[in-house]
Amino acid sequence: MTRPHVLIAGAGIAGPSLAWWLSRRGWRVTVVERARALRTGGQAVDFRGPVHRTVLERMGLWEAIHERRTRLGAQALIDATGRTVTELPALMMSGDVELQRGDLCQLLFERTRDQVEYRFGDSPTALHETPEGVEVAFEQHAPQRFDLVVGADGLRSNVRSRVFGRDDGHLKHHGFRVVGCTLPNVLGLRQRGVIYSEPGRGVCVTSARADDEARAMFVFTGAPLGPQERSPDAAREAVSAAFAGAGWRTAQLVEALHGAEDLYFDAISSVRLPRYSHGRVVLLGDAAWGGTLGGQGTPMAMVGAYVLAGELLANPDAHAQAFARFEARLRPYALKCQGGASHVGGFFAPRTRAGLFLRNHIYGLLTTKPLERVFEKLVTHAATGFALPDYT
Ligand SMILES: Cc1cc2nc3c(=O)[nH]c(=O)nc-3n(C[C@H](O)[C@H](O)[C@H](O)COP(=O)(O)OP(=O)(O)OC[C@H]3O[C@@H](n4cnc5c(N)ncnc54)[C@H](O)[C@@H]3O)c2cc1C
């Protein structure tokens, strides 16, 4: 291929990361994003261990990310009186460095916008593979042929359903729902967070960049959600119902939630796919291995983009080989990191009193001085368990 032209669907984290790697080596990259503007919402995302750090350093982002870090400290598991039961070190909840998802999204966009064509407010409507490439039809733009198509369009990937079929089995539900939002800082938190749990429901509140704001996450047991059931109004209703009669200052937080504007509502689930690619189409990030929460989706998206770019640049005329090598390298790592998504609901909202008691005591023990190293290993082992290839 002479100067291959790649279409990337999705301007979240995975898409612009891949665009950065390919465009700087002379590939033509078009990113199509369904939203009318960059989606800079979301809570904090973190990076931990040398694999994540090396990728950020190779992208020249380590300093910029540090400048934007949240500086969040420890988070406390508290009881109904607000008393700290166990203090969770910053490394567990915020990794080595943490920043707001929106800041990272903006940073990646700024670093790529001059070399990459971004088309907002559009989406692929059909993909047809020919021996020469992939003919793509769009909602807005005229049809166009690309050498390769990358689906980096998130947990409910449109590209995935067009290529692999609309199979609900691709999303494995873990039995919990989550609502995230920004609230007034009614708890007066400063660079710290608290987690209050009762059987089947839990709320985590952390300080935000502005002193008068806090980030809240309500986690509760519940069935999967259809696309019409994830609206802000549905989120308010679901939290009100799930947290009715809950103790501590939960009622105050639920009331504050009714004024929140940036509500995010989803079921906690993760993607299970038999393959990441089909012909000239490959999936990346949440579209391929994502999880709603707890699966290190953001660093995984960036490590994945690094490996996919490395394999494509090393095999520019053999996309099938590049895709196969990408999947062989990434899949075991993605599966390991995805493991977190199946436990995260039970961590914030243990289903039973006994489960809650056990969680508090296990974390109480693990965070004691003699077990410091064991704990450190526990909270970083998935992230560090990958031999990052060197493509330089
Ligand atoms: C608004 C938002 C808030 C989030 N908040 C959090 C959070 O608080 N905590 C957390 O851990 N993770 C959050 N995530 C998920 C997190 O960004 C991902 O897990 C991770 O960064 C992997 O990134 P990704 O690029 O694969 O997916 P995403 O970051 O989800 O990006 C996918 C992009 O594809 C776009 N897209 C979707 N469908 C189409 C289509 N048909 N055509 C074109 N584009 C399409 C989406 O609008 C989005 O911009 C959030 C994602 C979004 C979009």
From TrEMBL:
GO terms for molecular function: FAD binding. Pfam families: FAD_binding_3. PANTHER family: MONOOXYGENASE, OXIDOREDUCTASE-RELATED. Residues 5-315 form the FAD-binding domain. InterPro entries: FAD-bd, FAD/NAD-bd_sf, FAD_aromatic-hydroxylase. This is NAD(P)-binding protein.
